[in-house]
Amino acid sequence: MKGTEEKKADGEMRASEREAAMRDRIEARLAELPVMQYAFIEIRDLEFEDRVRYICETECSQYGRSWACPPAVGTVEECKKRCFQYREGFVFTTLSEVPDIQDIEQTLATRGSHEEITRKICGFFKDEGEDVMALSTESCAICKTCTYPNGPCRHPEKMFPCVESYGILVTALAEKYGIEFMNGGNVVTWFSLILLR
Ligand code: SF4
Predict the structure, then answer these.
(1) Which amino acid residue places its CA nearest to atom 4 of ligand 1?
(2) How many whole angstroms separate alpha carbon 100 and alpha carbon 95?
């Protein structure tokens, strides 16, 4: 008869086999999408810094204007605690080429398709029974005018807070997992993080 330790090891083995099979199925479905790079990440590899939040506060016009941005998303410490409630993460990038990357309007016009891909990949994980939380690009642009701070978010299930709004050092995370953050010339690199549990 197997002892408690052996049963525990068997259980862990089965869980890791299930996880590997799930990853294989997700990878097969990713082939349908124009995803440039992706990686499954350890939650402990997320680095949170107040200085990222400082940049939102001092350099972004969306600060204090959306449920997807600070201060609505909570303090960096609260965001960190929220992320650490998840088992692992999945990061990916998509690329868009624009005539002039310095032109913010042109750049932002390409963002919608990345958000749609983020929504599809969340769906892939949900089909696997995962509870997901996605952090994506820039501020939310679903509604013409955000209800913040006068009323609740109209589409909390569709809205993705910005990765940087959580105080996450995106470039450090990308570097750790070999994901290119700059793809040169007039190529815009869009980045999302999906947390899983
Ligand atoms: S879905 Fe609408 S209300 Fe909610 S954060 Fe986005 S713009 Fe604001």
Answers:
(1) 153
(2) 14
Closest among 108, 79, 84, 83 to 96, alpha carbons compared: 108
The residues with which 196 forms a beta bridge, in sequence order, are: 88, 132
Instruction: Identify which of 154, 157, 165 to mutate to test ligand 1's pocket (most ligand atoms within 8 A of the CB).
Output: 154
Measured in Å, residue 34 CA sits from the centre of ligand 1 at 26
Q: What residue owns the CA closest to ligand 1's atom 5?
A: 67
Question: What is the C-alpha to C-alpha distance for residues 122 and 146, in angstroms, rounded to an integer?
Answer: 23
- Phi/psi for 39 (5° steps) reads -160, 145
Dihedral class, residue 22 (left if φ above 0, else alpha if ψ from -120 to 50, else beta): alpha
CA distances from 76 to 43, 54, 56, 72, 140 (A): 15, 10, 12, 11, 19
Structure confidence by residue, pLDDT tens digits, 1-55: 667 777 777 777 687 888 899 999 999 999 999 999 999 999 999 999 999 999 9
Which pTM value belongs to this model?
A: 0.90
